[in-house]
Amino acid sequence: MPLPRTVLRLPVTGRRAAVAVAALSLVAGGVAGTAQLAAADPGSDAPTAQDVRDARQDVRDRKDDVASVQAALSAATARLQAAQVEAGRAAEAYNGARYAAQQARREAKRAERAAAAADRALATQRELYADAVVQSYQMSPSLGALGAIGQADGVEEVMGRLASVDNAQAALDARHTEFTQASEAAETAADQAVAAREKAGRTEAATRSKRDAAMSAAAAAEAEAGAVAAERDRLVADLARLQGVSVELAEQRQEALEQAAQQAAAQEAAQEAAEQAAQEQQDQPAGPTGAAEEPVEQPIEEPTEEPADEPAAEEPAEPADPTPPAPGGGASAAIAFARAQLGEPYKWAAAGPGAWDCSGLTMAAWRAGGKSLPHYSVAQYEQSTPISKSQLRPGDLLFWGDSGRPSSIYHVALYVGGDRMIHAPRPGRGVEEVSMYYWITPNFFARP
């Protein structure tokens, strides 16, 4: 970046003014300017060779200072982004813990219902078995083996009475077996209910821990944002002084530089992705005609019965009963919903209205599209159909993970086509539509 002439403006005349002119000549004319100054009359007020060297070094120092200030600004921005990303990770970890607690509570309720049903079945079998025992006792004088033989009028009647005794005993034994099985089932169901309640308690404790961690990370990101903002103001003021311009102009220049760097990085990532997709196409096995097979588009599944989370309060509230998804609007409805939220703020664990986190936004968008997804990025991936990057189409979901395992996913966005996405990025940035490559290239893709 060429330095403005005002950088070397000196408010004096004579020798220092000549040095300033010499410095500008050096910047503009290089070696020729140096030769002219070297030939100046040493007895006049013309700058000496040392003056020229000092002025040239001053120009270099100022350039170095500008570069160091810009580097410090970049480092501050990176530090803020790292804190905000960490806050986003903590928020999704909380969403995951809350989702696990929700599942554990459901399991506990199912186990309690099963235990209650087993207790009712046991009570029924107890009554039936008691009735069978009483009947057997009441009938024993006439159904006993000796009584049956003594009262019989012939061999055939003896055999018939013995058969009745056997049948009665078999019925009593069957009732006893059923009662025993019902008792064992009730005991097993009761144990399962206890275990499910204990698990629910543990997941509730884990949820509180993750909530505290998310709140702490959000507070740390907010504090870091304040510190970085103050540091940025100081650095931009230094930049303005070094460049000899107003603070407002220095801020505009710095923002333009950062935006240009971001766009360049996004273009580079997009180019790499395109080259990788082309290579994947070449590596695909050829069909009968020798052409590479086109990826098969997966149909969008029918809505499931996963519940949605209620909007977040100051401290995020627990999930409410599920809200039925809208009938079949599909991907276009999901994208339209997400676009309607552009500019609304990020808030951890929020699922609208008016504030969102990443998975809260995609959950609500696809609810408008007719598909229920949980408020948790990992579970959204697990309940969708995995696809490759080359198969992306509008409405699909983009995911970011720390590794090649889906369990490492910590961010999700809605793909809208043309290598662009809508997402709720992180604290301090509202819902936005940007290049899918502007930040980090996503490494998981799925179709709801």
What characteristic shape results from the CA principal axes?
elongated
Percent of residues in helices comes to: 55-70%
Question: What is the CA-atom radius of gyration, in angstroms?
Answer: 39 Å
Give the biggest beta sheet.
6 strands, antiparallel
**How do the strands line up in the largest sheet?**
1-6-2-3-4-5
- Uncertain spans: 1-43, 287-315, 317-322
- Summed over residues and divided by their number, the pLDDT gives a mean of 75
Secondary-structure-derived class: alpha+beta
Explain what the structure shows.
By secondary structure, this protein is an alpha+beta fold. Among the domains are: 88-230, Helix Hairpins (Orthogonal Bundle); 325-448, endopeptidase fold (from Nostoc punctiforme) (Alpha-Beta Complex). Helices cover 62% and strands 6% of the residues. The chain has 9 helices and 6 strands, in the order H-H-H-H-H-H-H-H-H-E-E-E-E-E-E. Strands 1-6-2-3-4-5 form a 6-stranded antiparallel sheet. It is elongated and about 135 Å long. The relative contact order is 0.10. Mean pLDDT is 75; it is low at 1-43, 287-315 and 317-322.
In brief, what are we looking at here?
Among the domains are: 88-230, Helix Hairpins, CATH 1.10.287; 325-448, endopeptidase fold (from Nostoc punctiforme) (Alpha-Beta Complex).
Blueprint (SSEs and pairs):
Layout: H1 15-29, H2 31-38, H3 49-143, H4 145-151, H5 155-243, H6 247-283, H7 330-340, H8 358-368, H9 377-382, E1 385-386, E2 397-401, E3 409-417, E4 420-423, E5 432-435, E6 444-447
Antiparallel strand pairs: 1-6, 2-3, 2-6, 3-4, 4-5
Helix pairs in contact: 1-2, 1-3, 3-5, 4-5, 5-6, 7-8
